[in-house]
Design goal:
InterPro entries: AAA+_ATPase (IPR003593), ABC_carbohydrate_import_ATPase (IPR050107), ABC_transporter-like_ATP-bd (IPR003439), P-loop_NTPase (IPR027417)
Shape: globular
Structural class: alpha/beta
Largest sheet: 6 strands, mixed
CATH class of the largest domain: Alpha Beta
Number of helices: 8
Bound molecules: adenosine-5'-triphosphate
Organism: Dactylosporangium sucinum
Protein name: Sugar ABC transporter ATP-binding protein
CATH topology of the largest domain: Rossmann fold
Oligomer: single chain
GO molecular function: ATP binding; ATP hydrolysis activity
Number of domains: 2
Helix content: 25-40%
Mean pLDDT: 89
Keywords: ATP-binding, Nucleotide-binding
């Protein structure tokens, strides 16, 4: 495991009008690792990832990618760095098949016509590289897929474009037990393939099943960034609900200390 972050923000601040939502937030994501971003409702998780993805401009703070300072002024800048966010609503088109969804807006063309064979091959290769076996045909319409399969397609779409950081917003929120297990396996595989994965989750079982690191936001401040192996479920719950955990000692950043 490398200890140099692929993506890092320092002292990030973000307000909406008079309301300061993120205060001096430090956050890092590492290649080959899953970083769980946890926090109560309204703690600032979505706002943080939208700042990372250039959807919200930041008020102040430093953004580093591959150890170098970068400026992210919009989603295109984040996409150019290789960062993709997979939102809860997945933004898939029901009336299109898997290949069409994966290449939507970025179709491969041969001259003026769509190169369906290349796109089909690449879609199938991407799913195979992620060991996805639940999808029978890449020509299946997305409307016919289960929730877990849809999540899988959205994640595969995110990795198709050589992204280096993939942010997953509650990927198992709407799934049953078996599909949750499949999606978590996929999340783990993304990291094992070298991607930096950021997993927003409220589910402690999911977090401990796949995360290498846990970053806990509390009322817009980073309460702690810790290795998952260094903390217990109840310590993380304390960080989420109280912003601190009495017996975590110096490893936490001390937002509410
Ligand atoms: N566009 C906005 N304008 C004003 N306030 C906002 C805006 N977006 C978010 N907020 C506020 O910022 C705070 C953090 O919201 P955010 O959605 O980032 O939290 P979250 O941790 O993702 O919560 P949840 O788990 O419920 O999705 C909340 O108090 C929210 O009301």
């Amino acid at each position: 495991m490398t200890d140099t972050p692929l993506l890092e923000v320092k002292k990030l601040n973000k307000s909406f009008g008079p309301v300061q939502v993120l205060r001096d937030v430090d956050f890092s994501a590492y290649a080959g690792q899953v970083t769980a971003l946890v926090g109560d409702n309204g703690a600032g998780k979505s706002t943080l990832v939208k700042c990372l993805g250039g959807i919200y401009s930041i008020d102040s703070g430093d953004y580093y990618f591959d150890g170098k300072p970068v400026t992210v002024h919009g989603p295109r800048d984040a996409a150019a760095l290789g960062l993709e966010i997979v939102y809860q609503d997945l933004a898939l088109c029901d009336n299109l098949d898997i290949v069409q969804n994966m290449f939507l807006g970025r179709e491969i063309k041969s001259g003026l016509v769509l190169d369906d064979i290349s796109m089909e091959q690449k879609a199938a290769e991407t799913l195979a590289s992620l060991s996805v076996r639940t999808v029978k045909s890449v020509r299946q319409h997305v409307s016919s897929l289960s929730g877990g399969q849809r999540q899988t397609v959205a994640i595969a779409k995110a990795v198709l474009w050589n992204n280096r950081v993939v942010v997953l917003d509650e990927p198992t929120a709407a799934l049953g037990v078996a599909q949750t297990a499949q999606v978590l396996e996929l999340v783990r595989r993304l990291a094992d393939n070298g991607l930096a994965v950021v997993l927003i989750s409220h589910n402690m079982n999911d977090v401990f099943a796949v995360a290498d690191r846990i970053a806990a936001l509390f009322l817009g401040q980073m309460a702690a960034e810790v290795r998952a192996s260094d903390v217990t479920h109840s310590q993380v719950v304390e960080l989420i609900t109280a912003g601190r955990s009495g017996d975590l000692g110096l490893r936490q950043n001390g937002a509410a200390a």
